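[Q] Does anyone have a clean structure-token version of this?
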Amino acid sequence: MNEETRLDQAHAAMQADLNDDAARLAFYERLADTELFLLLKVEPKGEHLDPEVVELEAGEDEAPDTYILVFDREDRLAAFTDGPAPYAALPGRVIAAMVAGSGLGLGVNLGAAPSSILIPAAAVDWLAQTLGPEPEEVEGQVTALEAPIGIADRVLVALSDKIVTAAGIAQYATLVRAVYDDGSRGLVLAFAGTNEGSEAALARAAQEAMTFSDADERLDVAFFSPGDPALARIDAVGFKLDIPTPTAPETPEPKAPGSDPDKPPIIKW
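[A] Here you go.
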């Protein structure tokens, strides 16, 4: 399989201009969101994982750099190992948190894809730290609502990408700019009809979108029930972000034996 993945695309955009901070942040965001196949020494036992570690020579008088190996597709891992090998499939954010502070870097798609790259331990630590903080609850009185005019396209794209993760747990979201009673201004992302208990995950997703899009505006996240008058006022001036509705898998209808011409009945003698 040679299909280009979204990680390949983010890597290519970063490599096209190494001075583009937004492209570099977008690559790290994609790495965090992607399910990665972590190469292991042996099959996992329970929650214990024993990653394969490789050492690469460093400069004189320097200790060798050590990396664990991850791939964004199972076939890419198999191509690297020349056959089946034990692995664990985990989101990039989980792997970064798992190895943060250990001195291990990430070897991503080494020799198996155009997005082949070595991410040093310091960058892995930064990623884990960036993903780590929990959103804080704040209180503030909104005195006015405005249309979110002038938002950078990269911020809207980042929020839209994250909104996809809310499929099935929220009906839609609306982005608006708010003026607070202390004179400050900021964006508000209002979710409608969220499932109970999903608020923290949605707030974190929105926070990450702002961080990795290099946005310089404050973003607050709010949750409303459909029909709430406050939500109606937000919807009236804000920018609606649609959330896809998950489609339920079709349940095949039972067919009588022999009724499908492509599957003739089995006759036993």
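[Q] Thanks! Anything notable?
[A] The chain has two domains: 6-131, 142-242.
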